[in-house]
């Protein structure tokens, strides 16, 4: 199905911009060709910008093979001469997308989907971004896929600006916008940066001394990197999570096949950075994520709620930042969504969008209608709760209630 699409897009490229007449997209539908495409793009991308572990070939491809169900890599590289100028990375699958309003699950039809991963859709110029949008539109129009989902696309990027304007018309895809926080930890010479004010740093030291004094100085940070350490780390982190609010809502590290697979792949590649805050040899907080290139991505963190007044999670994050600076890590990616601790330590916030683009098959039409209705309902409910001040109060009540029950 790809061959006629590629030929059509190549013709469009020639008509749109003569300088891109040789921007022939290469399509990879197996692990080896996808790896070659990703490695070609990695050699060209800006090394000063944060790196996405999700689009790293040494993580993405092994994890794709470990996923349940039918998952086929789909990688496309746009090149001009020997220069890579654009990338698309996703997975093809067949199944029913998850859709819900709160705890209520909405039944969805089976769709042939292309899920574009975070960091897997980038373009060197706006012209290349338009070629990418044409490619996505051609996939939908050809019936090769029913739905294309683009995850956490930076709005400031070339392709972000193009897709936010829509494929078929303004607002197509009805994006869900969320924030993403980063902290710049070191400069171009890999020297640590000081970003908080002197007053804030003094407050940090005071809080750190309070925690250390409360435990008579028996405070230690244990770091986990090796494959043989994954099981022990997951056991401790999952135990902390089960007693926290995060565990109650199903986020954070759990003793599951998924987390063993993810952390095992990261450890096998030398990417894993797991941190446990122990007092008297008892773990009370954890943080974990991968260090890939110039970036550490915080995947999950939690602490025992009984020590909330001492802020062990904040203590651990500060020690983690110090260790990452000592490694020369440039960026700390706090992940998606806003939170006070991200704003406190972050130095850069950008907005990202989740887009769901649908084709014209009967299944796609039904899915689009359900998706639109659910998003409208969700936004209306959230707006009502925020305007009334009930949202934050309800979240805090649920958090405290869950912790008391546990």
Please give the structural blueprint:
Layout: H1 2-16, E1 25-28, H2 31-42, H3 57-66, E2 72-80, E3 83-95, E4 100-101, E5 104-105, E6 111-123, H4 126-142, E7 147-154, H5 158-164, E8 176-184, H6 198-214, E9 219-224, H7 230-242, H8 245-248, H9 257-268, E10 272-279, E11 282-292, E12 295-297, E13 300-303, H10 312-327, E14 331-336, H11 340-345, E15 348-358, H12 362-388, H13 390-405
Parallel strand pairs: 6-7, 12-14
Antiparallel strand pairs: 1-2, 2-3, 3-6, 4-5, 7-15, 8-14, 8-15, 9-10, 10-11, 11-12, 11-13
Question: What attributes does this structure have?
Answer:
13 helices; 406 residues; Aminopeptidase; 13-stranded mixed sheet; globular; disordered N terminus; two-stranded antiparallel ribbon
Give the gist of this structure.
The protein has 406 residues and is α+β, with helices and mostly antiparallel strands.
Report mean pLDDT, rounded to a whole number.
87
Oligomeric state: single chain
Task: Give the class-level CATH name of the largest domain.
Answer: Alpha Beta
Largest sheet: 13 strands, mixed
Helical stretch tally: 13
Q: What is the CATH T-level topology of the largest domain?
A: Aminopeptidase
Order of helices and strands: HEHHEEEEEHEHEHEHHHEEEEHEHEHH
Helix content: 40-55%
Q: Which shape, going by the Cα principal axes?
A: globular
The CATH architecture term of the largest domain is 3-Layer(aba) Sandwich
Low-pLDDT residue spans: 1-19
Total individual domains: 2
The termini sit apart by 53 Å
Radius of gyration: 23 Å
Secondary structure tally: strands? 15
Strand content: 25-35%
Structural class: alpha+beta
């Amino acid at each position: 199905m790809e061959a006629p699409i590629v030929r059509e897009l190549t013709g469009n490229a020639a008509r749109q911009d003569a300088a891109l007449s040789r921007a022939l997209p290469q399509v990879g539908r197996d692990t080896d060709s996808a790896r070659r495409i990703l490695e070609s793009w990695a050699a060209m991308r800006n090394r000063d910008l944060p790196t996405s572990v999700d689009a790293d070939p040494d993580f993405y491809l092994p994890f794709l093979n470990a996923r349940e169900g039918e998952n086929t890599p789909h990688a496309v590289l746009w090149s001009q001469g020997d220069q890579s100028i654009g990338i698309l990375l996703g997975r093809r699958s067949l199944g029913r997308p998850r859709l819900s309003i709160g705890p209520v699950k909405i039944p969805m039809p089976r769709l042939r989907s292309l899920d574009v991963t975070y960091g897997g859709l980038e373009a060197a110029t706006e012209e290349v971004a338009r070629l990418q949008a044409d490619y996505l539109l051609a996939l939908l129009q050809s019936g090769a896929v029913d739905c294309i989902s683009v995850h956490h696309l930076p709005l400031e990027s070339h392709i972000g600006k193009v897709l936010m304007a829509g494929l078929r018309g303004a607002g197509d895809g009805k994006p869900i916008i969320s924030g993403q926080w980063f902290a710049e930890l070191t400069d171009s010479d890999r020297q640590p940066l000081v970003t908080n004010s002197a007053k804030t740093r003094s407050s940090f030291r005071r809080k750190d001394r309070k925690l250390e004094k409360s435990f008579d100085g028996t405070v230690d940070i244990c770091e986990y990197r090796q494959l043989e350490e994954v099981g022990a780390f997951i056991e401790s982190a999952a135990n902390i999570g089960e007693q926290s609010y995060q565990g109650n809502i199903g986020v954070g590290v759990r003793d599951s096949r998924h987390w063993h697979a993810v952390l095992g792949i990261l450890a096998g590649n030398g990417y894993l950075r797991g941190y446990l805050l122990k007092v008297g040899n008892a773990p009370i907080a954890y943080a974990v994520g991968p260090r890939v290139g110039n970036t550490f991505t915080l995947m999950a963190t939690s602490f025992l709620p009984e020590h909330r007044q001492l802020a062990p999670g904040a203590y651990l994050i500060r020690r983690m930042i110090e260790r990452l600076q000592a490694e020369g890590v440039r960026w700390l990616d706090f992940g998606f969504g806003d939170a006070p601790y991200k704003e406190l330590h972050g130095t850069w916030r950008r907005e990202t969008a989740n887009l769901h683009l649908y084709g014209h098959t009967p299944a796609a039409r039904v899915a689009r209608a359900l998706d639109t209705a659910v998003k409208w309902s969700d936004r209306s409910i959230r707006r009502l709760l925020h305007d009334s001040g009930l949202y934050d109060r309800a979240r805090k009540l649920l958090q405290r209630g869950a912790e008391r029950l546990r």
